[in-house]
Design brief:
Ribsml_uS5_D2-typ_fold_subgr, seven-stranded mixed β-sheet, 262 residues, alpha/beta, Ribosomal_Su5_D2-typ_SF, 31% helix, Lon_proteolytic, 7 helices, single chain
Length: 262
Amino acid sequence: MHFRHSRLRNLAIGSAPVVALLAVVGFAPLPFSVAQPGLTANVLGDDKGTPVITIEGRPARHTTGQLRMTTIEATGPSADVGIADVVRAWFRTDQAVMPRDSVYPSGGSDKEITEHNQAEMKESQDSATAAALNYLHLGAKQVKVTLNLADVGGPSAGLLFSLGIVDKLDGNGSGGELTGGRTIAGTGTIEADGSVGAVGGVSLKTRAARRDGATVFLVPKAECADAKAELPGGLRLIPVTTLSGAVSALKALDKGGDVPSC
């Protein structure tokens, strides 16, 4: 589905839905963005012909499963969003209305906002690499990881990047793949210590994940309720709070063990 707005951005960030509209009905254009499910990308695969994850210093494992980071697609920071757009999106399950300044930093030009989102993505990639290497007890001098993913901004691909690095370097720790050959999607920020943070927009991201073939979705535990509210059929939620917990859950899933659920 295409909006009438010419500028749409794929973002790994999200936001909670707007709670009240009445206070701003009289203003036009309104300070909102309208979002829908965005692209997903397999961090174990290629992006425009270049591997998303490149490993140097250690052999990289061959993988057949997928770890798909998810995004929302939102009207651009300069797009005019009127009351008709807001009302139309408000009553749809495949769109969401969000305060514009929760999607984009306020007060900046389009160029400044793009640069901000790119910087957030770079910081997220650095944290994801540090978290994965810390989990595997490897130092940056032992292995070099390069991450490449174009046209996406924001911090919430961090968890999936970390899991991809773990799968490429260690798999499930027993000779198999961390994914078990499945298509697994998810979202979540990550810190160098492995803690996973909430991001928002999960109800749209679960739709993007299921659309692109995922059967499992890793969600920050704090956002379980949002993810369950409009969960697509055939998609299993696994709540996570840490990278080690996410790895353990995926190993248990592959072995038919006890897996956390929302």
